[in-house]
Design a protein that fits this description.
By secondary structure, the protein is an alpha/beta fold. It contains 8 helices and 8 strands. It has one domain (about 5-220): Alpha-Beta Barrel (TIM Barrel).
Length: about 230
Amino acid sequence: MLSEFKLAPSILSADFSDLKGALNICDEGGADWIHVDVMDNQFVPNLTIGPPVVKSLRKNTEKFIDVHMMVINPENLVEPFARAGADNITFHIEATDNPDEVIDLIRGTGKMVGISLKPSTPFSEIKPYLDKVDLVLVMSVEPGFGGQGYIEGSTARIMEIKKYLKDNCLERVQIQVDGGIKLHNANEVISAGGDILVAGSEVFGSENPQKVIKDFYANAKSTVSI
């Protein structure tokens, strides 16, 4: 039975004029994490938020703040996001020529370290760094915009990564999945090995987001991971 499942609602899909209300929804629904998508309009074709918003979120929640940096030169933003109150900072393998430097910078701030890869990036690209990180973020859509559909083949990739982690005594590394996550496919993703699911439009685009969050957890309790 899966007992460590976490949902990380993405505030990218929330009402930006009422982010405190979005935090209240997450509280009432029982979400564990708050997912913050950071985009620079260079690494991905969209522009979102920066450290000041994370600082404001930090003042209004005690929940785990999970920052996903979809930016070039991620090393430049590690310390600003750490100071703002992030608990985990994830960067993309495709965004830097020196992943070890970024990992060391994040680790040096005392935060959890996440590494992510786009759907088209071979899993082999992040293998050399898995013993140095806490989390692997599997993108199940092309990063840049919320509301996209789950890419076919993502489940097989999650299973491949989960097996590799088990075979190499790296089961402490959590697998996070982001993109097209819905109530109807959550069980599939969890069964494949997903530990943390990011859901944006499914939560904040619903008529009863608190209930949707609770339904994710209820589904997870009945799902057995590989």
